[in-house]
Specification:
By secondary structure, the chain is mostly beta strands. It is built from two helices and 24 strands.
Length: 305
């Protein structure tokens, strides 16, 4: 006998948790390796993710639950914003490497048009880009509002105050801060996304149909995608970046406003666009150090950047 409730399956007296449902266009790929062939055992067992044997074209069949990630331990106000302590969820498998159990998030309202937020391991020194940035300031009347829960599952959202447009929302799940694998995803306010230079882009406007762009500062000459084959003799394509990495994008909002986001990280990384619209950052080292510029015009976004 099986009784389905809103939160639990009751099977012959046993209580099993029900994983949150994830819409196809919101799935964060838990098996992003190029040319890899995921299987259910590796997906649900080793990586602790969800499995769909027959997904629509390009939709990941191995994907994260929306409640995968960290929980908020504490949130305190600082001179410039917030400091948030995050804890890896107890009993949760880490898809890659060993998770950093406790992560610190600093949020700084630097100016009315510039927001800074950085995830890091306060107990271990990790590589950070050796670049002098503008020091913390205190915004008198910021154009944005930052929302972080006081407890429970962590997410961070940023809203443009005058229009109510949410320009960053990490509630998709999959947030990971591990020794050699860092990942965070965000919903986007529209599909009009531009940037991530140092690639041979066919158009300025990015393709949101599960397209991944790699960034590695290896001084490679420009060129088209390279065709390769996996162990099952299936063809796949490796996108080549050019001389360096430029992890900055500009997004146009539906009302014509624009904003920009910089990830200050020079480790090997990639970004994946998906139809939600959303994007996922993945990198193998350093910290997740973000700067957000509120524009609101494209020209002002570039000037602020």
């Amino acid at each position: 006998m099986i009784l389905l409730t809103s939160a639990l399956f009751l099977i012959l007296g046993h209580v099993l948790p029900v994983m949150p449902q994830v819409a196809d266009n919101e799935r964060i790929n838990c098996f992003p390796e190029k040319g890899g062939t995921p299987d259910q055992t590796a997906c649900t067992g080793t990586r602790g993710c969800l499995w769909d044997a027959s997904p629509p074209s390009k939709v990941p069949n191995c994907y994260y639950s929306s409640d995968y990630g960290y929980e908020v331990v504490s949130k305190t106000s600082t001179v410039h914003g917030y400091r948030v302590q995050l804890q890896w969820k107890a009993g949760q498998s880490c898809a890659f490497s060993d998770p950093v159990e406790t992560v610190t998030l600093d949020v700084e309202f630097q100016t009315n048009k510039r927001l800074h937020f950085k995830f890091y391991d306060k107990n271990t020194t990790r590589y950070e880009v050796p670049m002098d940035m503008h020091g913390p300031e205190t915004a008198a009347s910021p154009d944005y509002e930052v929302t972080i829960p006081e407890s429970g599952l962590f997410s961070i959202s940023v809203t443009r105050k005058d229009t109510g447009t949410v320009i960053w929302d990490s509630s998709l799940g999959g947030f990971t801060f591990a020794d050699q694998f860092l990942q965070i995803s965000t919903k986007l306010p529209s599909s009009y996304v531009y940037g991530f230079g140092e690639h041979e882009h066919a158009t300025f406007h990015h393709d949101m149909a599960w397209r991944t762009w790699g960034m590695l500062t290896r001084d490679e000459s420009p060129g088209p995608a390279v065709e390769e084959k996996n162990a099952d003799d299936e063809t796949y394509y490796v996108e080549r970046n050019n001389y360096g990495a430029h992890p900055f994008y500009m997004a146009m909002e539906e009302d014509g406003n624009a904003h920009g986001v910089l990830l200050l990280n020079s480790d090997p990384q990639d970004v994946t666009f998906q139809p939600k619209p959303a994007l996922t950052y993945r990198t193998i080292g350093g910290v997740l150090d973000f700067y957000m510029f509120l524009g609101p015009s494209p020209e002002e976004v570039v000037q602020q950047y």
